[in-house]
From TrEMBL:
It is found in: Periplasm. GO terms for biological process: anaerobic respiration. Electron transfer subunit of the periplasmic nitrate reductase complex NapAB. Receives electrons from the membrane-anchored tetraheme c-type NapC protein and transfers these to NapA subunit, thus allowing electron flow between membrane and periplasm. Essential for periplasmic nitrate reduction with nitrate as the terminal electron acceptor. One of its GO terms (molecular function) is metal ion binding. GO terms for cellular component: periplasmic space. Binds 2 heme C groups per subunit. Heme c 1 binds at H72, C86, C89, H90. Belongs to the NapB family. This is Periplasmic nitrate reductase, electron transfer subunit. Keywords: Electron transport, Heme, Iron, Metal-binding, Periplasm, Signal, Transport.
Amino acid sequence: MKKLIGAMLACLMAGSLMAAVPEITNSTGGIKSERGSTDLATEADPAPLKNFRKDGDIYDRQYMHQPPLIPHDIRNYEVDNKVNKCLACHSFKNASAMKAPKISPTHFETRDGMTLGEVSPRRYFCLQCHVPQADAKPLVGNTFKPVEALN
C-alpha cells in the first residue's frame, strides 16, 4: 500500500512539474514547431542547406572543456566503423602536412586511462562532440554568456 501511495504521489508531482514548464507557442496559441504549419502526416519540403565556412580561423571556446568547433564544411565526410575522413587531416601522421590541428592525445585513452596506439573507440566518431558552425538564424532566443576566464 505504501508503494502504491508513493507511486501516486510521484505521478502527481511529475504532472504538476510538467504543467509548470512554459510552452513555446505561436501566434494562435498552439505549440510552435520548426515544421511550421505542416502537420506530421505531410511530407514537408526540406529546408535549404546551411552555408558553412569553407575554411577559417579556429573558433574561440565558450566554456571549459568545450570540444573545439569545426571551422570548415564537412558535408559528404564519411565517418563510420571503417572510415573516418576527419583523421585524413587531423591524425598525428597527417596533421603537419595538412596544416591541421592534431587530434588530442586524450582521444587515444580508454575510460580506464590506458593509452592505445590508435583512436579509442569511444572517441572515434568525431561528430558526436565536434560540430561545424553555420551562418544561420538562431532557432530560439539565447542569453548565453561565455565564461569570463576564456575571453
